[in-house]
Amino acid sequence: MIALLIVAFAVILLIQVPKLIKKKYWRELLVYSVLMTLAFVMCLLYALHVDVPNPVKNTQYYIKELFPFSYK
Amino acid sequence: MKLEKGIITNTQLMFLIISFMEFMVLAINFVYPISKESTWIAILVAYALVILIALGYTAIAKKYPGKNLVEINDIALGPFIGKIFSALYIWFFFEYLIHFSYYFNSFWITYIMTETPRIVFVVFLMAVCAMAVKDGIETIARCSVIFAILVGTMVISIVVAQISKMELSHFLPILDMTPKVFIQSVHIILTIPFCDIVVFLMILPYTDKNTQIRKPVLLAISLSTALMFICVLASTAVLGVRMGTSTSGTFAATREIEIAAILARVDVLIAITLLITIFIKITVFYYATVLGLAQMLKLRSYKPLIVPIGLIACAISANLYPSDMEQVYCAQYIWPFNASIFEILLPAITLVVIALQSVWKEKGAAE
Question: pTM (2 decimals)?
Answer without folding.
Answer: 0.93
